[in-house]
Task: inverse folding
């Protein structure tokens, strides 16, 4: 781990000193780390575009990297903030799932009626599950969406999420709670319609 | 909502959480790294002034902070000065009244 950090720091120093091509080595070392973060927040068809933006921003900001935290942590903050910027610029019409179809509603019925663990797990793996989640998340503000994804879906602690977002711990704590309540209200209203 | 419905809602939430964790993340397309590197090279060729944009922003923030502190200082000084003037005027008037009362005597 320490060796890996040293290798990162060495590469960063070389890039900052003018060896631009060494940035490719940094990218190859950390692209899967960025893929996992961006893939958790951005629709699959837009992931490459946002990850591209993350690395360009990282290159531009490389001179501000102070070697006080591991390079992957620093890169993760850029990735999360790029995802936030992506959702801030999205229009409602461009959302991947803007309305729920009868198939989605049928899936909701089936998952809530599932009696066995196997039946439940099978429902969670279906395409409709992911689409209902995207539909519900799309009804949240970019801030709430990001916080609920980091804290409740990805399982980051409030402190970790605060560090990634550059927000205060208390702000993330309050927002995570409110965002989850909002998400539950959205789901509850949809269930009540049926 | 009844406790039974609440339980069903929790099931739905749990299924959505599992769907998120089991999501398929696409792998990189061929040429993606090269595309990023092309843009990185383009950025690297830009004059250094464009890259130092962060420094300018930092400087602007520092100047704004300095201006804000100076304004607060001036405002507080002005308020303190005006309070002193009011109390001094009050004191002078009080002296006038006392002098007046002496004349009456």
Result:
């Amino acid at each position: 781990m320490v060796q890996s950090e040293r290798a990162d720091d060495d590469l960063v120093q070389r890039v900052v000193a003018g060896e631009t091509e060494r940035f490719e080595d940094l990218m190859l070392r950390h692209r899967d780390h960025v893929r996992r973060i961006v893939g958790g927040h951005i629709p699959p068809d837009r992931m490459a575009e946002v990850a591209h933006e993350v690395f360009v921003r990282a290159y531009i900001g490389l001179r501000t990297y102070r070697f006080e935290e591991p390079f992957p942590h620093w890169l993760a903050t850029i990735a999360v903030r790029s995802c936030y910027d992506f959702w801030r610029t999205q229009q409602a019409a461009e959302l991947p799932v803007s309305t729920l179809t009868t198939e989605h509603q049928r899936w909701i019925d089936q998952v809530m009626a599932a009696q066995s663990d196997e039946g439940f797990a099978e429902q969670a793996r279906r395409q409709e599950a992911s689409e209902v989640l995207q539909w519900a998340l799309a009804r949240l503000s970019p801030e709430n969406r990001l916080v609920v994804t980091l804290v409740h879906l990805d399982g980051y602690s409030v402190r970790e999420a605060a560090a990634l977002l550059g927000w205060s711990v208390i702000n993330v704590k309050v927002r995570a709670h409110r965002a989850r309540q909002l998400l539950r209200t959205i789901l509850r209203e949809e269930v009540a319609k049926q | 909502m009844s406790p039974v419905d609440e339980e069903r809602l929790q099931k739905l939430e749990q299924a959505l959480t599992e769907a998120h964790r089991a999501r398929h993340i696409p792998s990189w397309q061929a040429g993606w790294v090269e595309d990023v590197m092309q843009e990185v090279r383009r950025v690297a060729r830009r004059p250094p002034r464009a890259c130092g944009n962060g420094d300018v922003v930092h400087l602007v923030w520092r100047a704004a902070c300095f201006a804000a502190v100076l304004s607060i200082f001036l405002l507080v000084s002005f308020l303190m000065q005006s309070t002193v003037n009011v109390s001094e005027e009050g004191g002078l008037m009080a002296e006038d009244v006392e002098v007046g009362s002496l004349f009456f005597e």
Observations:
- Chain A has a mean pLDDT of 89.
